[in-house]
Amino acid sequence: MNRDFSQLRADQFHPLFAFEGIGYLFTEQFLAQYSKYEIVVVYENNFFRSFISKVGMEKTLQEGYDLFANEEKFAENCKAWEAYLVRAKKVIETYQTPEDDLTVEDWQLVTTTLRECWVYHDKTEFIFTDTAFLAQETNPVIAKSLKRLGEIKFPSSEVLHMLGLNVFYRVAEKIADQFDITHQDIKFFSTKEVEELFSGKKPDMNRIARRKNAYVLLGFDGVVTEPSAEVTALIVDEFRVKASDIKTLRGITASKGEVEGNVRVILADYGSDFRAVDEYVKAMQTGEILVTENTTVQFWPVLQKASAIITNQGGLNSHAAIVAREMKIPCIVGVANATEILKTGERVSLEALGREGVITRVEETA
To answer: Fewer CB in a 10 Å sphere around the end CB: N or C, the chain?
Structure first.
């Protein structure tokens, strides 16, 4: 099907994942599994943001519900998942510190193994679990499935982290060394362009330079597409945050309540560096509303000071949602670009009473 991607509209999409420093090469691996769900990835200013269409999200939520409600099917999925984790750990062990020159077969094995991880691990994400989460109180099969999902999520996350953020890049950098490519440049190659290095073909480095500045990748109908430069510019602008024009933000209520308070925005690199946590703990004032990309266990000291939590990412079963319910404080998740729109020190009112949570920027009066 031919699509006119120049007509994509941000208001038809829901925020998915956002990370600092994720290059084109890794994005392709992620999209290999997600491309059937209508995904837009926008990279600009060294920041990766991904979005799923509302239609695609309806599909993932139904797929997740159907899987968790079918005891036999879910058991088969877990069995295959556990077998995959065994295979993946062998690949990690083999390629964690590559010393000898690598072959195209080595590269293909690593990329295939990484892509397969999302076949299983994606079922732990809110776009698959939220509908099932709401149904678990009245459906014991779903409750049992979600409990098992929680048990397997941690070892799966470890494999994804080690394979995707460690081994994958080490292998790519080793290949870069073999072909006199910089480590930074190879992060913006395509998978195919890396493979072609082994047959003596190098990509257009002007195209690599453009990707380093900004790129868009689209996953629709199971196909990953890099649009033209003209369409890329249109999509980047459409999905760019226009903070000053936004007075009200909306997301998913993960823990009910309402509060008014000052914002504390935390932009930590959750994936790799927690050295700044102590500084954030010192800076955050008790009663402030925490606004962040997502939360992890390392941020528990910060969370203890928060009167409410707002996250860009996540769903009803995310870390922020679970902690907020335990602490009995309001929480709204899946708030698109909250960390870019809201500023530390500004005052907001947060109303998380229905299915949709609303954050309103409070106008300061003289």
So the answer is: C
